Amino acid sequence: MAGQVSCSNELRLISGRANPELAKEIASALTVPLCDININTFADSETHVQLEESVRGKDVFIIQPTCQPVNENLMELLIIIDACRRASARQITAIVPYYGYARQDHKSTGREPVTAKLVADILSTAG
Length: 127
Fold this sequence. Notes:
By secondary structure, this protein is an alpha/beta fold. The chain has helices at 20-30, 70-86, 115-126; strands at 11-15, 37-41, 47-51, 59-63, 91-95.
């Protein structure tokens, strides 16, 4: 059909738990199914991620805003990225419609971090 994208053989869409409705809308618009993923939280609040299908050699797009709770959603994103990297994804792109720590993009006084840069560096290092 004209105007629709259907490349589910080459790409994988993965949704974190921060905004699954947004991920479903994106998947529907692209006519690409969301990748099966199992995300759990252990009793001590650790996040566990298990990809339920292969991403080997695929372009992976992870939809995960870092909205409240910012640190939990950021950590979940990092773990999903690492799972995809270790599962041999060809390319990983994080779609982060809300970027937590964005307001901390410069130093306004001494002895304070540039946390937006730190988070960007951590995301890059993760994969």
